[in-house]
Amino acid sequence: MAAVGAAKVQEVREITRIERIGAHSHIRGLGLDDSLEPRHVSQGMVGQLMARRAAGVVLEMIKDGKIAGRAILLAGQPGTGKTAIAMGMAQALGMDTPFTSMAGSEIYSLEMSKTEALTQAIRKSIGVRIKEETEIIEGEVVEIQVDRPATGVGAKVGKLTLKTTEMETIYDLGNKMIDSLMKEKVQAGDVITIDKATGKINRLGRSFTRARDYDATGSQTRFVQCPEGELQKRKEVVHTVTLHELTL
Question: Which domains does the chain have, with CATH numbers?
Fold first, then answer.
C-alpha cells in the first residue's frame, strides 16, 4: 500500500515590471557624432556634454567587449541626468538591450526581501542571445484585409497578402494573428517575418519601393530590400531574452 502525501508548493513572488512613460521616454541615444563629440541637442539629449562624451567612450568599450561583466556607477545630484545617460547608453546599444529602472520606494514597498528584489532586477537587466534555426515566412506586405462580424460579436478573420521578388501569396488570418499584426502596427509596404512555430511577427522595416510615400519620411524609418526567392524558408534567427526569463 502506497501512501501519497501532498507537497506544499512554495509561492514565488516576482517584482512587477512598471512601464514608465515620463521624463526620459523621448531619449533615443547619447547624442554623439561619429568622433564621440556630443551635439548640443540630439536624440533627446541636451547639456552634460562632458558626461555624455565619457559615456560614449564607455559605450565603445562595451561594444568591443573590453569591460564585460563590470558595472558603471553614475554619481551626482538629483536631476543632473544620471538616468537619462543610462537610458541613452541602453538605447545606443540597440532595442534588444534590457533596461530596468527602479526607485527606492518600490524596493521598500515589495513583499519580499530587498536582496531578492535587487537580484531579480539585475537578472532582468542581463540579456542572453539564443540562436536557432526555424521555419519562417518572410515577405513584403501587399495588403491586409480584416473582416469584423456585423454584430460586433465573434472572432475577426482576414487575409494577408505577402510577396517576394519572385512570388505573391494570400494567407488566411485568425483572430490571434490579426491582433499580432495590429500590435506591431504592420501596414502595406512593411517587410515582415512570421515564425511558423510561434506565430511571432517581426517587423524588419519599410520596403525601398515605399521610400517616397508620405508616411515613410520619418527620421527613424528603416528601409530594407524586398526579400528574394520563396516566401517560406528556413533561417537562423536570434532571440534576446533576459536571464530572469530563462530561469522561470
Answer: 24-94 (no CATH), 132-214+221-239 (2.40.50.360)
